[in-house]
Amino acid sequence: MASFTARRDQDGNVIGWQAHVRKRGFPTQTKTCRTKKEAEAWAAIIESEITRGVWRDRSEAEGTTLRDAMARYALEVIPAKKGARQELLRAKDWQARPLAQMFMASIRGKDVAATIKNMESEGKGPNTIRLHLAVLSHLFTVARTEWGMETLVNPVELVRRPRLPQGRERRLVGDEESLLLDACRKVNPELAAIVTVAIETAMRQGEILGMTWDNVTVTPKQKQIFLPDTKNGTARWVPLSCKAVEILQELPRRMDGRVWGYTLTGVRRSWSRALAHAGIEGLHFHDLRHEATSRLFEKGFNPMEVSTITGHKTLQMLKRYTHLRAEDLAKRLG
Fold first, then answer.
1. Is 85 a catalytic residue?
2. Can 312 be counted among the known catalytic residues?
3. How far are the Cα atoms of 85, 94, 131, 265 from residue 82, in angstroms, in the given order?
4. pLDDT at 196
5. Which of 161, 179, 268, 302 is most buried, most CB within 10 Å of its CB?
6. Annotated catalytic residue: which of 144, 273, 286, 320?
7. Is 290 a catalytic residue?
8. Any catalytic annotation for residue 254?
């Protein structure tokens, strides 16, 4: 049976109604609503679900705010994820938003959609917003599957996510490669070696800078680099071209075992200087990965072979980094 109690303020005015649903063999269910009509409707739903045998306990989902749930997520889930530092920053961003004051069970798609609009007005790009939504979505998944909030509906699944912009199509054109390498040598010969390895292997900047000599194998039968820690969390072997081998063999060996002395910040600064010296505009270091991936296809490698080298998980991801020159394709057509 359901019972209803008026909630009053200090002046005796009714400010809400609390519904209680009691059924033998089930825990008492309680919820405070703004009106008695809402309380009665809620109680009717609970009683119907109990009668039909489909009831699930909503108390935790209805009594836990997004802020508290995100705090638990940051403590229990994020530390085990790759890129934990960035994930933690996104979690804190969610905790600072008005949505964080709402109970998990009350968050609807329209609430998430409104937050997306707020993020866009703040100047956040589509990919940044999608990464934030991924954190929120995974939180709801974990809460539903591991924290006993089985009745939750994931509101992120109900909204349209911002469309990602068209992938960059910047490649080296004309004599840009020679100009770039000459400029890099003037800034620092090691920078030129790093750029060459990037073009020859399609490795990410972080993967290149994280190389250690104990993971480099150059023998008559094997020419490869082992990457134990990659962006997508999967280790892989990267084959080395003759030019890449030549570059590596000419490098001095460091006492700390690292292949390069450069840091990420150092490369960024030197890269900007090299572009200025070369007079090249609109080229990002990551564009070298685009260039290298496209060259692999132009050499005749199939998508499976290319993905093994580059580490892309899906063909769709691979397509975003691959921009084949029409004139090269025309030559193969005959």
1. no
2. yes
3. 9, 19, 13, 21
4. 96
5. 179
6. 286
7. no
8. no
